[in-house]
Amino acid sequence: MKYLSEYRDPELVQDYLKEIHRIITRPWTLMEICGGQTHSLVKNGILEMLPDKLTMVHGPGCPVCVTSISVIDEAIWLAERPNVIFTSFGDMLRVPGSGKNLLEVKASGADIRVLYSPIEALQIAKENPDKEIVFFAVGFETTAPANALSVVQADKIGIRNYSILASHVLVPPAMEAILSDVENTIDGFLAAGHVCAIMGMDEYYPIAEKYKTPIVVTGFEPVDLLQGILMAVQQLEKGEFKVENQYARTVLKEGNRLAKETINEVFDINDRTWRGIGPIPRSGYEVNNRYKQYNARLKFKIAIAQAKENKDCISGDIMKGLKKPFQCPNFGKACVPEHPLGAPMVSSEGACAAYYHYASSDFIFKTGASRFTTKVEA
Amino acid sequence: MCLAIPGKILSVSNSSNTDEVFRNGKVSFGGIVKEVNLCMVPDASVGDYVLVHVGVAISKIDKEEAQKTFEYLHQMGETTELTVE
């Protein structure tokens, strides 16, 4: 398949690996922001092939992982209204709220439907004029254009029985939160390619400058990731801290103007609480006043208590790069994908699930996970 | 959720609805064809590859830039040699 398989070429992967091994002279720690990148690194065995001097830590770029437990509770509350058809991306259904998850609510009879795109929700709204259709609008900047577009389209064609429960999160404020943490160990970042395809690179220059941290906008295939790592290591070895673009086939410096306009048409930036991390100022999107009739929180006057997080889950430390999944005493024991304690074990983009499904036990032992005793199937 | 997929535009709909917000097309993902909203990639046309994210194309893939990843190491080698000389 064009623009995919050629970026998985084993020979090219080896060439890039050799070059990284050749140029690295000191220990460095890089964080890949996006959970999609984490999965590609672990699934393709790249972590095991990198030099020992290079540590990859896995960032917070997993929307399922960072959506706060209170927002999951709001989603459950909405899904339980008798006149509501609740629609969502599939990976949100098994994320635990404070009591249950959406899948259990669905099993109890709620009309919850998994969609590939929020645009599909509009068709459901047209076909069910006596019902209220709510879409669970989660995600980073990547899903924001589609979620915003669904609202713009609904407004243009006069669909009134549609609203979204917005829980958008933004990458740059999270990077700043990580870099400002006193325990921070990150020397450089692989920025999330698809976020930058929309938002462009402008937000990253001040961060690179302020924290003297190289930031390389990187794609998702093995060759992309290795080129991004190589570019970041080159900068670190030279003492540079530039913003570079490995993923230029997709990412323009200015991003996608029309996508940004659509986002700005529908959303305002607001403060948001990140699961495991806590509140980060101006780190999310909420539906603005102009489109308030499409804001499910206002439409349904949701008022439920703020939920407490599960103390047994160390997802915050994992997403800030302070701990690896296998350093959690519950990893692979009390916390498995079938019965997750926290969201990173649920999501297809969560770091814990990536390690559980794909990391070999040799690799986990090699990297010093003395507390990890459960065998992981490769 | 953030993983967008590259696909080839097979057709762009010319429906009576000329509103740009509803510009749609059929996109093939290695043989699997889906209806995709193309309003955010106005310069993409039939035969182009676009990156599609939850039903909306967010970027047109640049063929020349795509090639550079394969030439990067080679070019870097040349640059290093030049510096040495």
CATH topology of the largest domain in chain A: Rossmann fold
The secondary structure category of chain A is: alpha/beta
Shape of chain B: elongated
Low-confidence stretches of chain B: 81-85
Cα radius of gyration of chain B in angstroms? 18 Å
Give me the count of strands of chain A. 11
Number-wise, the strands of chain B total 5
CATH class type of the largest domain in chain A: Alpha Beta
CATH class of chain B: Mainly Beta
Shape of chain A: globular
CATH superfamily grouping of the largest domain in chain A? HypD, alpha/beta domain 2
Any descriptors?
heterodimer; A: 378 residues; alpha/beta; Rossmann fold; 3 domains; six-stranded mixed sheet; five-stranded parallel sheet; 11 strands; B: 85 residues; alpha+beta; SH3 type barrels; 5 strands; 35% strand; elongated
Summarize the structure in words.
The complex is a heterodimer of chains A (378) and B (85). With 378 residues, chain A is an alpha/beta fold. Chain A has 3 domains: 5-62 and 174-245, HypD, alpha/beta domain 1 (Rossmann fold, 3-Layer(aba) Sandwich), CATH 3.40.50; 65-170 and 255-264 and 282-299, Rossmann fold (3-Layer(aba) Sandwich); 315-362, no CATH class. Chain A contains 17 helices and 11 strands. In chain A, strands 4-3-5-6-11-10 form a 6-stranded mixed beta sheet, sandwiched between helices. In chain A, strands 2-1-7-8-9 form a 5-stranded parallel beta sheet. In chain A, helix 2 runs parallel beside helix 16 (351-358) and helix 8 crosses helix 13 (257-266). Chain A is globular, with a radius of gyration of 21 Å. The model of chain A is unreliable at 368-378 (pLDDT under 50). The model of chain B is unreliable at 81-85 (pLDDT under 50). The longest helix of chain B is centred in the last third of the chain and has 22 residues, at 63-84. Chain B is elongated. In chain B, strands 3-2-1-4-5 form a 5-stranded antiparallel beta sheet, with no helix packed on it. Chain B has a single domain (5-84), classed as SH3 type barrels. The interface between A and B is large, with 56 and 36 residues.
